[in-house]
Amino acid sequence: MTAYVRTEDAPRLPAPANIVGWRAAIRERLFPTPLSGLASIIIGALLLWVIWTIVDWALLRAVFVAPDRTLCNVEGAGACWPVIQDKALQWVYGFYPIDQRWRVNLVYLMGAVSLAGLLIPRIPFKGWNALFFFVVYPIATFFLLLGGVFGLPYVETSQWGGLLVTLVLAVTAIVTSVPLGILLALGRRSEMPIVSLLSTIFIEVVRGVPLVLVLFMAANMFPLFMPPGVNPDKLLKAVVGMSLFASAYMAETIRGGLQAIPKGQYEASRALGLPYWKMMGLIVMPQALKIVIPGIVNNFIGLFKDTSLVTVVGIFDLLGIVQSGFNDAKWASAQTGNTGYFALAMIYWVFCFGMSRYSMYIERKLNTGHKR
Questions:
Q1: What tens digit of pLDDT does each residue of 71-104 get?
Q2: Residue 370 has what pLDDT?
Q3: What is the distance between the alpha carbons of residues 204 and 255, in angstroms, rounded to a whole number?
Q4: Is residue 218 one of the residues assigned to a domain?
Q5: What is the pTM (predicted TM-score) of this model?
Q6: Are residues 42 and 162 part of one domain?
Q7: Rounded Cα–Cα distance for residues 192 and 276 (Å)
Q8: Do 45 and 151 lie in a common domain?
């Protein structure tokens, strides 16, 4: 018997045409079975209809230049963008005095620069940057916006509004909810019964009521715990209420990460002689926070959107400012409200989408099993 022995590699053949290329990818993802293909066609048609409707209203039939509501009231007119141009500064500054808006601009600039320094991975002096953002910046923001010192005119918080109030509420609540959430999560898992009981009661009570109720309680019941004659500022009460509400949800998110850490990590830390707080700060907590990055960012996104609820307690955040602009007779038209809410939705989407994408970047960087 004669055996055939190949003396050279077999030639490389191209992959079958039915398993490579964009056609194969579409067929595999959208039309793997007849039922899936039918669902893809229906959903695709619905999506195209929605996109076309929005484009037709927001661009093709829209009014881009107009001195008042006249052109926006024409039958068949689309979005009334001139009202956004007219109210843009009010959306950004609220009712802040025009001659003092440079203070708000300075706050925005310092916040953007310091936040960029924290988010960019490789940048020098990151420790000093963090110290500035979490310690110096809040104090500077308080005195800059409120005034009354260093020759700055006093501006009541009732004159604040728009994006300024939304960012103050969101950033303050986000920054304070993380350390409070960590303490509450550790307290709930504590071996000291009284600490565990108090932490559990706080978390379950706060999570058991809607944020609107928390805001109403902060606005009306918070002064009851103050000395007679002391009535804290309305914006301050809303910040406290939102921070406590967010910390309860953050505590449960972080507690989930702590429970995911293998018991061996705790035992190894104790075997090395590490005290409790060093064990948590150096070994356990970094791993737990890495695991729950998606949950933490989800809380941040929900909290940012929930700032719109402060409108019900008389605070003119971004939503409140937009709604107040609808009362202007100069721009009263059938499309004013739709245009305002659409623009507002885009603003919220930009902020939330940015947080989501940065979260995905951090997950990939830390190798937390991120998948698209």
A1: 888 888 888 899 999 889 999 998 899 999 999 9
A2: 46
A3: 13
A4: yes
A5: 0.84
A6: no
A7: 13
A8: no
